[in-house]
Write a structure and sequence with these properties.
globular; NADH Oxidase; 5-stranded antiparallel sheet; single chain; 5 strands
């Protein structure tokens, strides 16, 4: 996956790329933290402040939930799934054998980061640049995804394991009500993190030659 002999001007570049390579999906997590809650908060705050957004629209909204507050997210998710069982949408057996154990595994972690996008703030920029109006919502989602990735990499660099979940729209209303969040905040993803209790699965790569091209490279 690339030359090991490459030299960078800034040694931090190699460190950054190693952190990127080391980011994995961990499902086995426990409610312990290798760092302080203040350090976790700093990671999330810096992502909110410094991840770029199109036209500096700053549409990402992020909520950090730790300990008992984190557990509430997955209690809400379990309740939502139980509602699907009661409605006949989700088979009881599937819920008990697969869905509920998976949700309880998320609940057993240390924290959850909720990532939202506030699309309503895009009204003025859509009017100003009407020719791009249909692009701003996807741009906002791209910025939010960058925040998700940065927080994921940073948490794992500090010794956490993490996995990214998407339980919208099943839990959106309950989450907004539980934490008194504005209706304009639209939930996109939930990053679950904790101390790893198992190794991640094997990671397979498609051939780089079919995914990357370079032109005009100097000798």
């Amino acid at each position: 996956m690339g030359s090991t002999a490459t030299e960078f001007k800034n040694p931090a570049t190699a460190t950054l790329l190693e952190l990127v390579k080391g980011r994995r999906t961990y499902y086995g997590l426990k409610a312990e933290s290798p760092i302080s809650d203040d350090a976790i908060e700093r990671i999330v705050q810096d992502s909110v402040l410094h991840v770029p957004s199109s036209f500096n629209t700053q549409t990402s909204r992020v909520v950090l939930l730790l300990n008992e507050e984190h557990q509430k997210v997955w209690d809400l998710a379990i309740g939502a799934m139980e509602g699907l069982v009661a409605a006949g949408v989700l088979p009881q057996e599937s819920f008990e054998k697969s869905t509920k154990p998976k949700l309880n595994s998320f609940r057993a972690a240390y924290g959850t980061v909720l990532f939202f996008v506030d699309y309503e703030t895009l009204g003025p920029i859509k009017e100003k640049f009407a020719i791009y109006a249909d692009k701003f919502d996807p741009f906002a989602l791209e910025s939010n995804a960058m925040s998700q990735y940065l927080v994921w990499v940073a948490l794992e660099s500090e010794g956490f394991g993490a996995n990214l979940q998407h339980y919208s729209p099943l839990i959106d209303e309950a989450i907004a009500k539980t934490w008194g969040l504005p209706a304009s905040w639209k939930l996109d993803a939930q990053l679950v993190f904790g101390t790893p209790t198992s190794e991640p699965g094997e990671k397979a790569f498609e051939p780089l030659e079919s995914r990357f091209k370079v032109f005009g490279k100097s000798a």
